[in-house]
Write a structure and sequence with these properties.
By secondary structure, this protein is α+β, with helices and mostly antiparallel strands. The chain is 46% helix and 14% strand. It folds into two domains: 183 residues, no CATH class; 95 residues, Orthogonal Bundle (Arc Repressor Mutant, subunit A), CATH 1.10.10. The protein has 13 helices and nine strands. 36% of the residues are buried. The model has no long low-confidence stretch (mean pLDDT 91).
Length: 304
């Protein structure tokens, strides 16, 4: 488990585009002490960009042939898919996919993984969130970070996702807002200082992200199979799955699955009843292929 690494900076507009572009061109330069000059940001911001590339699973360490040692950086298959289809990170589905990756990356985004999978408060103050994280780690880990480290991690997470209510007057010169806040998962009351999880409206999350999230939660799914079958209830509640990532209760998740069936077609995704239980059955494609299907659908819609 890892805390920090983001240097207290939430992801900013354009950061992942800059980082991924350099990652694909010459990944060794991201490890260079002059990476900040190449990225056009400060030194701590350059460290933060590299961290977010790992946390969102756009970058990984190569493993040397014949050993278990990690060597240089390299772009993941997901990074190459996004580079080809949405290089400037303009599509909302891209950010939903990266959010799913954060929730399923306890190695590089421990607080994100904990918050969406284990912290179930719907209304809370920042101090409550910090204390919840501290208690969880006390029960499950042998060593826990200093309180200040946890406070900074929670502050960064809340900054990443929350939108002020009422909205703060926008400054066109201000590029500090995180694109993840546009997903609408958290609201922050400027009056009380409290935070709250926001219900996701129907149709907000692209249908392709349901199987994407299930495959991210359990990479064993679909191995050597053409189709995956999983109970609707299990799919909703599984750690790292769509229910956790998108804040959906069982009823809302079921409705999202019915909508996905209509969007994707029953040959690729369907809800069936077996022995009185609702079952999801969907194509055992890779996460990257499901994201490509999303890009295909929105491009076809735009061309129509």
């Amino acid at each position: 488990m890892r805390f920090g690494g983001h240097e207290t900076f939430a992801v900013r507009e354009g950061w992942l585009h800059k980082g991924m572009k350099l990652l694909l061109k010459d990944p060794a330069q991201l490890d260079d002490k002059f990476a900040s000059d190449l990225l056009g940001v400060g030194r701590n911001m350059a460290k933060s960009i590299r961290h977010w590339l790992f946390a969102t699973q756009l970058a990984e360490r190569r493993i040397e042939a014949g050993s278990r040692k990690h060597s240089g950086l390299e772009a993941t298959r997901l990074a190459r898919t996004i580079s080809e289809r949405d290089p400037y990170f303009l599509e909302q589905g891209t950010w939903w996919a990266l959010h799913v990756n954060l929730v399923n990356n306890p190695e590089h985004a421990t607080t994100w993984w904990w918050f969406f999978n284990h912290f179930l408060h719907t209304r809370f103050e920042r101090a409550t969130c910090v204390e919840g994280l501290r208690r969880y780690l006390t029960l499950h880990e042998k060593r826990i970070p200093r309180l200040k480290t946890l406070q900074r991690d929670v502050a960064c997470l809340l900054t990443t996702y929350s939108r002020d209510i009422p909205p703060t007057p926008a400054d066109p010169e201000d590029a500090t807002d995180s694109p993840f806040s546009e997903l609408g998962l958290l609201a922050h009351s400027r009056e009380s200082g409290a935070y709250g999880r926001e219900p996701i409206a129907a149709g907000t999350v692209p249908s392709e992200l349901i199987p994407y999230a299930l495959l991210a939660a359990d990479q064993r799914l679909g191995k050597e199979k053409r189709h995956i079958e999983i109970a609707v209830r299990e799919a909703c509640l599984v750690t790292g799955g769509p229910g956790r990532c998108f804040g959906l209760d069982l009823d809302a998740f079921y409705e999202a699955c019915i909508e996905a069936e209509a969007h994707l077609g029953r040959d690729r995704f369907q809800v069936v009843s077996l022995a009185g239980e609702r079952i999801l059955r969907f194509e055992a494609a890779s996460r990257e292929r499901w994201l490509e299907s999303y890009y295909d659908r929105i491009e076809h819609k735009a061309a129509a």
